[in-house]
Each structure stands twice: as C-alpha cells, then as structure tokens.
Amino acid sequence: MWKKIRDNLKELNDLRTEGHQKGYSIGWDIPITIKLGCTTYIAGAPFDGKTEWWLDVLINLSVEHGLKHVVFTPETGAVHDIVAELCTKYVGKPYIKKYSGYMTEAEKVGAEMFVAKHFFIIDPMDDKMTAADFLNLVDEIEFKEGVTIHTTTIDPFNELSHDFSKDEGRQDLYIERILGDIRKNARAKNRHNCVITHVRDQSPIVTKKGTYFPIATAREIAGGQAWSRKGLLMIIIWRPPKNHNKENGDIYKENEVLIKVVKSKPKGVSENGNYYMFYDIKRNTYYLEGDIYAKRYKDMPREKQAELKLEKNYVNWHETEKDESFENS
To answer: Sign of dihedral through CA atoms 91, 94, 97, 102?
Structure first.
C-alpha cells in the first residue's frame, strides 16, 4: 500500500501549523507523554520498580484523562491482588486492614468502582497466552463490554507463551516479529501498547560502600537489540544504590529511582534524558524532588463521591459488577 502527498494534505497542514503533537501527560511534570497509536517498552532489573511505576502512570491517565486499560501482569499476583494494588495507588492508603492508616470503607468502595470502570484485568493463571491471543482478547473486551480500550500492558514479556518455530528457531527474529505486530496493532487500533521486560544478567560493581548493579542499557535488554530497533518510547528504570554518589557528587537517597528515557519516537512525544523520582511506600506512589506528587492528588477530592452516596450505591454495584468487571479471560 502506498499513498501520495495529496492523500495526506490535511495531516501535513496540521503538522505545519501546530507542530508535532504530544500524547497524554502522565501526571508528573516531566517530559514523558503517552500517545495513542504508539508503544512503550520498559526494561530494568528485577525489583527496580518497573511495574510499580507503570501502574502509577495508568492510574494517572485514568484520573486525568479517563483512559481505560487492559492489564496482564501475572507477577503482581492474582486478580484480587492486582485490584488491591490499583486501589491502594488510587486512594494513597493501604487496602489491607492490617496495615496502619488503611482506607475507610467508603474510600475502598470508591476505589473499587474506579478500578472497575477503568481497568480490565487478564487472569494471570492463563499461562498459554501468546501475544496474538492477548491482542485478540483486547478486541473481544471492547466488543463485549462496549468500551474503547486506550492502553494495554504486557508485564512481563516472558510470561507470554513463545514459539520460535516460525522464525528459524531464532529468538531475535521472533522478538522482532512479535514487537512489530504489537506496534502495528497500536497504530491500527489507535491504542498505546506497553511491554515490560527484564534485562540480561549484568556484572556487579564492587566498591567500598558495597556491591550493586549499574543501570542497564537498551542493548542489555533480554532478547537482544530487537527491542531497540522496534521500540518507540523506551524507558529503563533503575533503583540506584543508596548512599552512593551521583555524578554531580550528591548522594542517592534510599527511595530514589531513575526513570531514563533512552529512545523517544515519534518526534516531540517525549524527551530523552534522566528523570529522578522517589517512591512513597506509605502512599504506594512516586513523587518528584520537593515532595511534588502527581496532579491527581490535587484532583482527588473532586473524584471521590460523598460517603453516604457511596454506601447507598454500594449494594447494587457490588452485586452486578464485582465478579465480572475485574476479570476477562
């Protein structure tokens, strides 16, 4: 298929007059946006906060822009574990009662209603799901639920079922093909598809202050350079070693996390660079230097309904939505 210039005169005129268009803001004042029709690949070592950060982004996208998501994240736990995690992030208080400062019953109900409206969670017990199966399931959710899905998440990539037989048994060719399919799907369906993956084993750095692993590069993503070649927005997440020095001489804080954008396409959507954030374990969310939290915390009072209204509506909602809204498999 080919097109001539005259087929895209409107798009060309819009580009000339308005410039490159960014995507949706992710909640914090950093130059990373999420554009429909594109993809994000997030990589990092285990326990460096990849899933935590991305789920925070999804909550922000729903609060600020009303976006809906399909999430496949088996490492986060069973469906109820994932729902509880999202509720905790939404309210900024523990969902589980044994933790101090846990959310009230009204806050719990409001959070469950919010998650039910904006999230569809794929049953993590399905261990035979291919990338094609996942994308087809997203289409099925849209059709059966009568909704528009704006983002999808595969977390992590190795939890999918993989078959290299169509690619001469070569992992690199397989990854290039699958990532190409995921990118084409995002463009065809006008969604944003996110894939979270791990990096290869790294050599540790030994210092007088201790041993740690350096921040990974895009070339160190498990599976090779196919990720770099196929990626649009590519992010490496790294938890620095506490009490070690940064390049400028400052000391890394214990809860500090580096969000490194190593590739950003299309032009103008985001900006390559290092963005330092901090993890608030009590609120289960990230913030910027100076205790600057996501914009949704300012909007939260408008998002929450009055306690009496929530309690009045709870019974009917709980009976009709609880079981089927969180799980689609």
So the answer is: negative
